[in-house]
Design a protein that fits this description.
Elements lengths: L3 E4 L5 H12 L3 E6 L9 E4 L5 H15 L4 E4 L14 H29 L2 E6 L3 H4 L5 H21 L4 E8 L5 H4 L3 H10 L8 H11 L11 E4 L8
Parallel strand pairs: 1-2, 1-4, 2-3, 4-5, 5-6, 6-7
Length: about 230
């Protein structure tokens, strides 16, 4: 049976691949985007997760057009990479506000409908960096690590209502961002990955889709790495 799925930041990269993966199995998929032209084929709602009123408006539109959200993928995120001593208050607060507080806002709003349905899947898109750490990414790593505590707390709060909360932590992904890295830097990163290659947005998306499937119904509060072995032991 088709479910109502919402993917935040679903207009490019991992988010778009996730939206496509759910659409492939016949789910009704909505995406949020902040600017530009959204991809065709999905219910696209403009939303900035740093603004509570736009989050509320986005959910209202999704609920009206495809029903209460049964699967939420909290994927919207930004980076403001720089070394700690150069990191401004704004660099810190913007990343935390978008990545962590934004994820809290959409999870809280989605949970309202899920509680009424007595079922639901909340999936946070974190990063291997959230557990492994990364020089120059103190703000980003903190925001992604925070998702783990949030997901596990939600898993404990809402588990009795048939709602699961999990974290998927991708490693280095082939995207426009990684393509911009120097050849030397790419070689350094690849040398740290046991599988010797980056993952693709599609590989990450398939894992997220599986976490939301009936096959994964007994998994909650988990951190699932899709990182080629980069973060082993974390």
């Amino acid at each position: 049976m088709a479910r109502s799925v919402l993917v935040t930041g679903g207009n490019r990269g991992i988010g778009l691949a996730v939206a496509q993966a759910f659409a492939e199995v016949g789910d009704n998929v909505a995406i949020t985007y902040r600017g530009g032209e959204p991809p065709a084929g999905f219910l696209a709602v403009k939303c900035d997760v740093t603004e509570p009123e736009t989050v509320e408006a986005a959910f209202a539109e999704v609920e009206e057009k495809q029903g209460p959200v049964e699967v939420l993928v909290a994927n919207a995120g930004i980076t403001r990479d720089t070394l700690l001593l150069r990191m401004s208050e704004e660099d810190w607060s913007q990343v935390i506000e978008t990545n962590l507080t934004g994820a809290y806002r959409v999870a809280k709003r989605a949970a309202k409908g899920m509680l009424r349905l007595r079922r639901g899947r909340i999936i946070f898109v974190s990063s291997v960096v959230g557990l492994l750490g990364s020089a120059g990414q103190v703000n980003y790593a903190a925001s992604k690590a925070g998702m783990v505590g949030m997901a596990r707390s939600i898993a404990r709060e809402l588990g009795s209502r048939g709602i699961t909360a999990n974290v998927v932590a991708p490693g280095f992904v082939e995207t426009a961002l990684t393509a911009q890295l120097s050849e030397e830097l790419q070689k350094q990163y690849l040398a740290q990955i046991p599988l010797g290659r980056y993952t693709t947005p599609e590989e990450v998306a398939r894992v997220i889709r599986w976490v939301a499937s009936d096959e994964a119904a007994y998994i909650t509060g988990a951190v699932i790495p899709v990182d080629g072995g980069l973060g082993m032991g974390h």
